[in-house]
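Renewal narrative, Specific Aim 1. Our central claim is that a sequence can be written position by position from structural information alone. The example that follows is taken directly from our test logs and has not been curated for this report. It begins with the structure tokens describing the chain, in the order in which they were read.
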């Protein structure tokens, strides 16, 4: 493929960037990178009621979070701009003038009520329920005079007589054919002079020199209409690639019912952008049918449309969790500290100054947690005991562990074993505590559970000896002393 590949992601800012849109963006990005092409971001903000600046910003943030850098678009610029549809009215007007000159469009004066009646009549006859082309046969001069007199009108595409069925070769779905009579003489420009959706998209793709239109298959039925517009304009038709839907585990189209659907919601749930990117890339594409952990570089080097599946993909939260956990485990300690810190900060455990001053300590925390969490939101609750002065002991842990026979004696022995240690590091702590059960004649499990509950407040925690080192001697001994009166012997 030539180096002139130009693709675009064209979200409508009527909501956040959701999972399906993000996958479309990823495929476009990867396709552009794979071919050394250009990835364009175009904001389709023509629906004034539903498009908001806030949504545009949310989409841009989500793209940035995923690392989907675009070569042309809002904030980046480019020679095919502007990149907001609301700023491109001039090019739609120009295209309309071109079509008028070429005889590819005609004004239609039918009122909405008349159109409704025509549709009804068509339907009643069991035939085509679209526009019956009344105004197509008006005398051209008479029509021009009515336009000049200011009579309300739209501009329709004059689908050429004798045009056969509309066939195209979709890069994902293969040969696709639409019967030409399923396509109306569609409206290109409305009574108020604004371009319709299909007209705007086609003009944009044509004037932005887009070579491949990679988008969701909810747009498949727009494609024959857009092909006819390209033909009327006399410009090359791009290659289309329609991506199948993403379904929830229940086989229904992914929606809010299935929980989080926006990219930023996944960010807020503690997923890593590289894991989300990897997971979404594999929802409908595969490298070789087996590799699951694929870096963005590998994706950018290997992505191809012919490995995109025609079948709907199923979104599986468990697989995403697994993948996120895999990325967390593989991450360097330094990197993970950088990712952890905002989570610790937002849980009120760490200030920005402490994040710097306690970096060494935080690096030691990494191996305690990296194998135990799948998402970053699990982190703060798991390690909060290491940041606080004291801990509150969970009621059931107290009943189950601290009030067990021998727990009090075990706590006293642990305190004695730790109080006099020359150094308070994991190894020394472990050696000292391992001697306790035999010395006091209490089962190891009782001893270790007792100190764990005393120090962490619960029965489940990161590894004990390492945790004690990170907690430090002073707080360890204070916690043992505080827990002691809760035990009965
Ligand atoms: N703006 C459309 C959407 O958000 C996409 C149009 C296209 O990709 O052709 O669904």
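The sequence written for that structure reads:
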């Amino acid at each position: 493929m030539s180096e002139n590949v130009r693709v675009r992601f064209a979200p409508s800012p009527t909501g956040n960037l959701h999972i399906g849109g993000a996958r479309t963006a990823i495929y476009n990005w990867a396709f552009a990178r794979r071919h050394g092409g250009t990835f364009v971001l175009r904001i389709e903000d023509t629906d004034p009621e539903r498009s908001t600046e806030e949504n545009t910003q949310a989409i841009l943030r989500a793209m940035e979070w995923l690392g989907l850098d675009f070569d042309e678009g809002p904030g980046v610029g480019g020679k095919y701009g502007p990149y907001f549809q609301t700023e491109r009215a001039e090019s739609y007007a120009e295209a309309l003038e071109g079509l008028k000159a070429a005889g590819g469009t005609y004004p239609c004066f039918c009122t909405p009520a008349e159109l409704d009646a025509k549709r009804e009549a068509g339907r009643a006859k069991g035939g085509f329920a679209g526009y019956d082309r009344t105004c197509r046969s008006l005398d051209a001069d008479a029509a021009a005079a009515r336009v000049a007199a200011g009579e309300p009108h739209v501009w329709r595409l004059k689908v050429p007589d004798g045009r056969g069925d509309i066939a195209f070769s979709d890069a994902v779905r293969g040969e696709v054919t639409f019967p030409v009579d399923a396509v109306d003489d569609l409206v290109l420009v409305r009574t108020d002079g604004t371009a319709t959706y299909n007209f705007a998209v086609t003009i944009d793709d044509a004037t932005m020199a887009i070579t491949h239109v990679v988008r969701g298959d909810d747009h498949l039925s727009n494609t024959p209409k857009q092909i006819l517009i390209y033909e009327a304009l006399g410009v090359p038709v791009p290659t289309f690639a329609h991506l199948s839907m993403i379904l929830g585990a229940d086989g229904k189209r992914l929606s809010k019912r299935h929980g989080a659907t926006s990219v930023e919601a996944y960010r807020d749930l503690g997923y890593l952008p590289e894991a989300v990117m990897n997971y979404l890339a594999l929802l409908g594409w595969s490298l070789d049918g087996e590799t699951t952990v694929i870096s963005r570089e590998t994706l950018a080097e290997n992505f191809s449309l012919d490995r995109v599946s025609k079948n709907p993909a199923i979104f599986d939260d468990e697989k995403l969790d697994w993948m996120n956990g895999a990325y967390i485990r593989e991450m360097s300690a330094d990197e993970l500290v950088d990712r952890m810190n905002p989570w610790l900060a937002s849980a009120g455990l760490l200030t920005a100054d402490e994040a710097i001053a306690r970096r060494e300590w935080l690096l030691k925390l990494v191996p305690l947690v990296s194998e135990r969490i799948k998402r970053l939101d699990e982190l703060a609750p798991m390690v909060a005991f290491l940041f606080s002065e004291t801990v509150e002991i969970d009621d059931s842990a107290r009943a189950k562990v601290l009030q067990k026979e021998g727990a009090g004696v075990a706590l006293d022995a642990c305190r004695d074993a730790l109080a006099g240690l020359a150094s308070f590091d994991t190894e020394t702590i472990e050696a000292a505590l391992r001697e306790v059960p035999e010395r006091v004649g209490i089962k190891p499990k009782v001893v270790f559970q007792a100190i764990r509950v005393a120090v962490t407040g619960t029965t489940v925690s990161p590894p004990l000896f390492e945790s004690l080192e990170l907690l430090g001697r002073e707080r360890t001994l204070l916690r043992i002393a505080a827990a002691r009166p809760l035990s009965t012997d």
